[in-house]
Sequence to fold (324 residues):
Amino acid sequence: MVSASVVICTHNRAAELARAVEGALPEARGCSAEVLVVDNASTDETPARLAELAREGAPTLRVVCEPRLGLSAARNRGLVEARGDVVAFLDDDAVPRPGWLRALLAPYNARNVACVGGCIRLHFLAPPPPWLPPALHHALGAFDPGGAARELRYGHENYPYGGNISFRGTDARARGGFSTHIGLRGRRQLQHEETDLCYRLEQAGGAIHYTPAAVVDHWVLPDRLRPEWFLARHWQGGQSAALFVLRNRGLLRALWRVRWLYARHLVAVPYVPREPIDPARLVQECRRREALGYLAGLVRTVPRLRALRRNEAMPHPAAVAGGG
Fold:
C-alpha cells in the first residue's frame, strides 16, 4: 500500500473541527499514515483548539498554518507539506466511515491513477426542511455516482467532489496544484478548484477513479438550510463554471456552453421563495441563478483570460519549512 497523508484544511471552524480530526486519526493509524491540518488564516478559537488536538493526536497529527486566505492556497500548502505519496483531502465538516482511507488508497497500485474520490453522504443535524428536494443535495456536497468502482472522464460524469478526494502528490504538484484563481476564499464562495486540477491531470494522461467503498458523512450546518443560501450557491457556482471552462476549454467552448446548457434556464420565469416554498420552482430558480452567474462570470473573466490560463507556481518546500 502506498504511503498517505490525510489533509484537512480549515478556516474559522473551531466548534466543528474536532469531529473531522477525530474521525481521520484512526483511519490514518490503520494505514500508517499521517493527519495534517492546515489552519488557513483562522481568526476564531481554531488555533487554540488545534493546539489541543495536536497534543492529543501526536505523533500522527501535525498542524501547519497557511496565512494566505483561500482553500486553494491551503490545499497547495498541504500538497507541499505532506509526507505521504498520496494526499487525501477531507473537509473540516466531514467524518470518514471505517475503511475510508484504505479504500481510497487501493486504486493507486496502478501507476497511471492520479486521483481517487469516494462517496459523500449528507448528515443532517435535524430533519431537512420539506422544501429541500434531492435535486439540490449536490449543492450541500453530496456525491454518489453509484455502487460501481470506475474511471471517470470529463464530459461523461462529474469528477469526485473536494470533500472526499485524493491525489498522487507528485502528479498534483507537477500539474501546478490547485489554481488560486478558483475556489473558496472567505466570503467568495467559488468552486471547481478540484475539477480544474482533475481536468489537467486527465489531459496529461492521468486516470481519475471513483471508489464507492470510501465513504464520508458531510455534516450539514443549519445556516445552509435557507433558500437564500442555495440561490447564492448556484449563482457563484455559475461564475465558477465560467472560470473553469474559460481557463481549460477556451472562449468558444465557453460561449457554446451558454446555448447548450444554460439557454433554457435563462428564459425561466423568476421565482422569489416565500412560505410555503415550492420545491420544484426553487430548483428552477437555482438553475436560473446558475445560468446568470455563468454569464456574469464570462463578462468579468474574458478581459483577463490570458492571466487566468497561466498556472501559478507551487510553493517551494524550503519556503514553507518550519511553518506551523
Q: What stands out?
A: The chain has a mean pLDDT of 93. The longest strand covers residues 207-220.
